[in-house]
Write a structure and sequence with these properties.
Radius of gyration: 17 Å
Number of strands: 15
Shape: globular
Number of helices: 4
Largest sheet: 13 strands, mixed
Helix content: under 10%
Bound molecules: (E)-2-(5-bromo-2-hydroxyphenyl)ethenesulfonic acid, zinc ion
Strand content: 25-35%
Length: about 260
């Protein structure tokens, strides 16, 4: 099965997922100069009635899942032609003292990257159907840099010891990811893919320019989580669960204000 080690990591994913060598893969490096597109309106995150359900360890990341049976939490605006429904969010991070973001900015990595995954429920009947359509998904990426404690992240890091092992899941209700947003929503946007297998080329990426600040201590709690299940004799710490930037292959990146 795929993972992030030498034998099953990003360098060999193409063997089982040939689209890994495709023309719109993610993540990418965001160059210093990106064309500003004045026609790009602001991104709007309507999360006021969002319903988180649980937090789980899927063996690749820690995921907070949402009830996506109606339009109670959606994003719209920016490059999007329809509202997209929030399905889950998860993180990618590094090891002790090394960075773990997926996208890079002018070659620089951040400590971690948060992905809020949404799907186009106007055009498609299910997430799985949307996940294989070129305009099916919209993922908002938020960079995490280290500094002071983040005032709300503890609700997530405290729950992480409950999902230490792959396959574990625990109730996680009433969490609104609005508390994880930076103060301004200026963004870069481009057409790309999921950054984990199946690597579907179905994602409109919306990367917020302003990182949020979390402490080393809080990031350290991410690393208490394991890639491995309770029944496995190997205990592999979950860290460095990120894919490195992929070839741009002529794609245009646009910048909001
Ligand atoms: O890292 S991402 O590209 O946000 C991957 C998101 C993703 C979300 C779901 Br839900 C299922 C498979 C996936 O690969
Ligand atoms: Zn992700």
């Amino acid at each position: 099965h795929w993972g992030y080690s030498k034998e099953n990591g990003p360098d060999v994913w193409h063997k089982n997922y040939p689209v890994a060598l495709g023309s719109r893969q993610s993540p990418i490096d965001i160059p210093r100069q990106v064309s500003h597109d004045p026609s790009l309106g602001p991104i709007v995150l309507d999360y006021d009635h969002c319903t988180s359900i649980n937090i789980s360890n899927n063996g690749h990341s820690v995921v907070v899942n949402f009830d996506d049976t109606d339009d109670r939490s959606v994003i719209h605006g920016g490059p999007l032609e329809n509202p997209y429904r929030l399905k889950q969010f998860h993180f990618h991070w590094g090891g002790k003292g090394c960075d773990g973001s997926e996208h890079t900015v002018a070659g620089n990595s951040y400590a971690s990257e948060l992905h809020l995954v949404h799907w186009n429920a106007v055009k498609y009947q299910s997430f799985d159907q949307a996940a294989t359509a070129p305009d099916g998904l919209a993922v908002v990426g938020i960079f995490l840099e280290t500094g002071d404690d983040h005032r709300w992240l503890h609700t997530i890091t405290d729950a992480m010891y409950m999902v230490k092992y792959k396959g574990s899941v625990t109730d996680f209700k009433g969490f609104n990811p609005k508390c994880l947003l930076p103060s301004n929503l200026h963004f870069w946007t481009y057409l790309g893919s999921l950054t984990t297998p199946p690597l579907h080329e179905s994602v409109t990426w919306i990367l917020l320019k302003e990182p949020i600040v979390v402490s080393e201590k809080q990031l350290g709690k991410f690393r208490l989580v394991l890639f491995t299940g309770e029944e496995e004799d190997q205990r592999l710490r979950m860290e460095n669960n990120f894919r490195t930037p992929q070839p741009l292959k002529g794609r245009r990146i646009r910048s909001s204000n």
